[in-house]
Amino acid sequence: MKLLHIDSSVLGPHSVSRQVSAAIVARLRQATPSLDIQYRDLTQTPLAHLSGSHLAAAQGAPAPAELAPDLAASQAVLEEFLAADIVVIGAPMYNFTIPSQLKAWIDRILVAGKTFKYDANGPQGLSGGKRVIVAISRGGYYGADTPAASLEHLESYLRGVFGFIGITSPEFISADGIQVGPEHREKALASALQAATGLRAA
User: Does residue 3 contact residue 202 with C-beta atoms inside 8 Å?
Assistant: First the structure.
């Protein structure tokens, strides 16, 4: 069984989402020692954002030579995702949504004919057999009953993205309010780490 671990926070060891995603992976490794784990840090090896040349190449047009390394990276990212049975993602909220590094990764895995297709009934997801677990960190509180609920475009976006490709029940572990104050941060992190240890086995 293959597990793909993705981190996208720019904060390195100070990142809450990285700590929680690592705890999730540790829990799954403990339960299934034979897990084949692949790790990708989107801040250490960032993907370029899509350009007109990327889209033209995807349609079969000749690609500029300077684009070749990034096209190869795109293919590698897609193959990693397709091969994974479990995907664990560290996703902090930046300005109400996902980091741009994570968006660049998503742009490489939402590929027609690979992770979704269109037919007479509309879009059909092709990745429904995967388990996706997302470690979220948010500076404030964005629950449905909070004043900032309308600004929550992190979890809602990821649910939409993964639902589009057939993953209808992604799992989320959230650490909220981490910028409210040190006590809030400590409590949120402890709660998220505890939730990670309680995950069902792979």
Answer: yes
Give residue 6's region: left, alpha or beta (phi > 0; psi -120 to 50). Answer: beta
Which residue carries 């639902």 as its tokens? 163
DSSP state of 62: P
Handedness of CA 145, 151, 157, 158 (dihedral sign): negative
Q: What are phi and psi of 142, to 5 degrees?
A: -130, 20
For 40, other C-beta atoms within 10 Å of its C-beta total 18
Spatial distance between the Cα atoms of 137 and 23, rounded to a whole number of angstroms: 14
Quick one: tokens of 110?
């939402």
Q: What is the CATH number of domain 2-53+68-197?
A: 3.40.50.360
- pLDDT by residue (tens digit) across 103-145? 999 999 999 999 999 999 999 999 999 999 999 999 999 999 9
Domain boundaries, the chain: 2-53+68-197
Rounded Cα distance, 156 and 32, in Å: 30
pTM, rounded to two decimals: 0.95
Distances (CA, A) of 34 to 4, 27, 29, 172: 14, 13, 7, 24
Q: What's at 60, amino acid-wise?
A: G
Which residue blocks in the chain are alpha helix, DSSP H?
Answer: 16-31, 52-58, 68-83, 100-109, 155-164, 182-197
